[in-house]
Amino acid sequence: MKFVFDLDGTLCFQGKPLSDVIINALDELTHCGHGVIFASARPIRDLLPVLPEHMHAYPLVGGNGAFVANNKHIISTVHFEEDVKNEILAIIKNYGLKYLIDSEWDYAYTGSDNHPIRRNVDPQLRAKQVDLATMDIIVKIVLLDIPDHKVILDRLAKLPIVIHEHGNEGILDLSPQGIDKWSGLQQLGLQDRTYVAFGNDANDISMFQHAHTSVMIGNHPELGSYAAEQIPADETSIARRLLAFCRLEETAAASYDRAKSTFR
């Protein structure tokens, strides 16, 4: 079975890398023969620092589906169409919005150095911070500290884009039309009902809708409608649930071996 994991708020917390207890549980999952995929709102550049080195080659979906990577190579990116990009940039300029904007690798940032999202942006200096005017291709946009929230959301809602609203963080996360985590997973060859999904937020809904089993971490009313299970947002509970999947696999294998011996 394939297992698909969101990262922030699901496997790692407060922007910190995966803990040893989570890493060990994931390693046990792969040892049992399962596949592991990470699907995050972070671009690939910012997804890598929270993972141990031996997981960098795992299949990765970043930017809520706008980036797809495997074996340490980005295999797919989807960017905003030129007219849509220009509409969004006009809104940003007219309202003086602060932002984090990603191209295929580099980024532009105008938020405060003290903003919580800033510490997660390129901590290993893998990319360059560039001027927005130099970006020909824009893959992902995060709007920060938004004034006139309803007015701006109404303006953006008229555009052919995907909007994820993170109310507890006060940000709007924008992706090109048709892009979500499920679209990214399809780029990796996943099919309907063939994987287990773990997530904690509204941007995980698309991958929950197509999962064989969906496990919500913590409590999110909108996501909860699509979750088969809910477990607390603490590392011990999460690790125990992962190890339970391994025990289930071992029990099934033992039952199969006993059944075979019966007919010898």
From TrEMBL:
Superkingdom of source: Bacteria
InterPro entries attached to this UniProt entry: HAD-like_sf (IPR036412), HAD-SF_hydro_IIB (IPR006379), HAD_sf (IPR023214)
Organism field: Paenibacillus azoreducens
PANTHER family: 5-AMINO-6-(5-PHOSPHO-D-RIBITYLAMINO)URACIL PHOSPHATASE YBJI-RELATED (PTHR10000:SF53), PHOSPHOSERINE PHOSPHATASE (PTHR10000)
Name of the protein in its database record: Cof-type HAD-IIB family hydrolase
GO cellular component, one term: cytosol
Keywords recorded for this protein, A-Z: Hydrolase
Coiled coil spans: none
GO MF annotations in UniProt: magnesium ion binding; phosphatase activity
Keyword hit for Hydrolase: yes
